[in-house]
Amino acid sequence: LALGDMQGAELAGVGDDTRSWGPPFVGRESVYFLSVNRNKKSIAVNMKNPKGAKIIRELAAVSDVFVENYVPGKLAKMGLGYEDINKIAPHIVYCSITGYGQTGPKFQQAGYDSVAAAVSGLLHITGPEDGEPIRPGVAMTDLATGLYTYGAIMAGLLQRYKTGKGLHIDCNLLSSQVACLTYIAGNYLNCQKEAKRWGTAHASIVPYQIYGIYIRTANPSC
């Protein structure tokens, strides 16, 4: 069992706000919510209540992976931080997903895809050359962080298989998105070439951008 199989934390009586992110809806649930929570099991637990925290610890004891995305220190106050879980489940791969990591000047701030995308520089290089920054059509920072997290968890499970010991993984939105901009950073670090928006064009590859095509037919009436 992986606690990652369980649905994320939801407010009692209200639920995850993405349940209402629509239209479209399937029944009373938004397609958005269903798309990222398919095949997951869920239970309602009040972790602020000692009995609820005990349930989480009991689940952790028989789980392989524990994934949480609270602001650093929040779960520790409930007795559910890494050190707490490690005492009862030293085998567990405990993964924390935050906005800005476990340390640093912004570590206590909540993380959001669009904010991390802006801070990382992704929005600075996205959009028309003579226009404003544009957010990508999907939550690229969230998606990239999820993929990096997946790889880290798989590596953690491999280490656990070899050593019998679990570990604490620190993933965050900002670091994940910055990692996706590696060649942008390389251009500046090596050549002091600052990135900019190119629209659909590419700074180093031609042809790359969208071209308008005019087709003249033999019969103008066609």
From TrEMBL:
Transferase is among the record's keywords: yes
InterPro entries: CoA-transferase_III_domain, CoA-Trfase_fam_III, CoA-Trfase_III_dom_1_sf
Any Gene Ontology CC annotation: mitochondrion
Annotated keywords: Transferase
GO MF annotation list: succinate-hydroxymethylglutarate CoA-transferase activity
One Pfam family from the record: CoA_transf_3
Family: Belongs to the CoA-transferase III family.
Protein name, entry field: Succinyl-CoA:glutarate-CoA transferase
UniProt organism field: Sphenodon punctatus
